[in-house]
Structure formats: structure tokens, C-alpha cells
From TrEMBL:
GO biological process terms held by the UniProt record: polyketide metabolic process
Domain of life: Bacteria
Native organism taxonomy: Bacteria, Pseudomonadati, Pseudomonadota, Alphaproteobacteria, Hyphomicrobiales
Family matches, as InterPro entries: Cyclase_SnoaL-like (IPR009959), NTF2-like_dom_sf (IPR032710)
Any single Pfam family the record assigns to this protein: SnoaL
Protein name: SnoaL-like polyketide cyclase
Organism encoding this protein: Roseibium hamelinense
Amino acid sequence: MQYYHFFPVFPVESNKMTDFRKTPHRFLNSIFTVAPSEAELLVDTSLTEDAVWNVSFPVETLMGRDSIVRDFIEPLRQGLSHMRRRDEIFIGGPNRRAPGGHWVASVCHYVGNFDAPLFGLKPSGHLAFLRSGEFYRIEPDGRISEAKIALDLIDLMRQCGRMPLPRMLGTEMLFPGPATHDGVLPVDQGDGEKTLDLCEAMLADLKVFDPETFTSKGQTGEAGYWHEDMLWYGPGGIGANYRWSGFEKDHRASFLTAFPDRVGGNHYCRIGDGKYAAVSGWPSMTMTHQGDYLGVEASGKPLTLRVMDFYRCAHGKIMENWVLLDYLDLFRQMGRDLISEANARTPD
């Protein structure tokens, strides 16, 4: 089959890189639908033998092809019957951060009927859109050697009517694709470095904030990083919000009250691709639980948080931001087993 054949990704006699994004894109959108007799060959030709995938809690670290298939690919196939992967964003570029290399990053949904248990969560028997943020390191031969994957199982709990967290922040909703509908393998990659420059500058200034107003310099206004009609799409438990005032009210104020000493930006990957950029840390943040948060009283515990951010920019401004956070792992550190709590609930 055609996706078993790989062309050189980084030509030896040329400084111009071919579109290395397409090979992993084909694999990731084929592996869940090919016949079992074809899957083994597809995996062998698409993943390095010693590939390591780090997946959000409760899956955690998977080492080698067999573990990746057994503990990630097969559970998704079995849990979401007739499943299809649906990309909203799929971009790639050279990584500015160590360990370097070329990476692709994606926001997608795994779509199917939730008919069997998945990663410990009881099924609903209904259609589900399991959102996921994903980063993959691509070797010169086109194979994937490393991955970081953040599944939003809390949003899946919400879809099942078993939400274990209070609904007190933004709008809980399906992640929309980019307003421009051009986020999958963008054609014009020329401004990727400039786009990433903008996002990096924003992140640098976002670290410092006024403890009374929760504002940071340079974020808004005529010379600010964010467009006045910015859209921020947060994970389950936080939800989405509109404009900077909505972002502060529906996320930033409560988060900084609970974790005022948070330090972020510890990223293993930062890439730009045309009007898009993506960054991730595993973990990205270290912080102390100093205030109540989403029903959990302040514990004083030191915490870490795995983070993925995806951005669409235009005219020198950030227009949209998709955010995936490993909140199952965060709440585990705060002493909460959200999977058990969700399973114990009667569906709404």
C-alpha cells in the first residue's frame, strides 16, 4: 500500500527540506482504520524500534512499538468503535528547543461510539469526540521516534454526563478548528519563524503579572500580542473564553489565585509553520497549590503541569489559542482520582 513507501525526508545533496509532515500524517490517520493484517507492517515502517511515547495520565510512558500498539492504539480502537482520527491542526517545523530535530504537532479528535471502557473510564454508548494534543519527533527516514500526547479525558467525562469537576469557569464545548480552516498541513509555511517569534515574546511577558488585576504587560492593546477578539479554547474543567477579559475571568484569575508562584515555559518543543505555532513542556510548569481550585482546597503541595499550546496568528496578533493540559495528572498530585470519581457518578 502506498503509505508503506517512504521518500527521503532530508535530501543529502540539498539544503531544501521536503515536506516531512505528510508521512507521519498519513500514518496517524491510517493506523486506526487498516486491517489487522496490515497494521503490523505499517507500525514497523512508521515507528523506530525504540520509539518512546509519553501519554497523559493514566497511560504514561510507553517504550517500543509493542507497548505503543498494546497500550495506546488498541485501547482507542476498542473503546471508540469504528473510530476515525479527525485533525483540526497538523503542522511541522524545526524545533528551537533541545533536543532539536524536526517535529510535527497536532490538535485532533478521536471520533467514534464510546462502546467499551477506555483508559479506565466507563463507556457512554454514544458518539464521542476525544480531543488530543500531540507532538511527534520525526527522524530523517520519516519514522516517529518520540511522542508526547495529551488526551482530554476530563472532557470525555463531560460528554458522558459524568463530569467530576464543578462547572464554574468557561464554556465547555467541542474544540473548533481554526476560523480560517487551513490548519492541516498549511501550504504557506514562509512565516513560521515570525509566528513563533510572536508567541515566544508573548510567553516571556506572560510570566510576570499584577497580583491584584492578574494582567501582564504587552498582552493587549494596540501594541499587544493578542487580537482584541482573541479566542482561547481550554481543556475540560476550564472551557473556552472570548477576548482578554473573558480569558482573565474564566481562567487566569482562578488559576493564578490557586498557583501564584507558577513558573512555566520549560518546553522541549517550539515550532512554527506559516500562521501557526505550537509549544509544549512535559512538564512545563512548576508551582505550589496555595489557593482553592475547582473544588479542591489549597494543600500547599508542590505540583507540576504538562502543557501544550497551539496558536493561530494573523497581522502580527494571536487570534486563536488551543490549550491541552494534563489535568488528570495535576489532580492526582492534589489527591483526587478523577477517573474513579467520574465512574461513581450517575450520568446526567
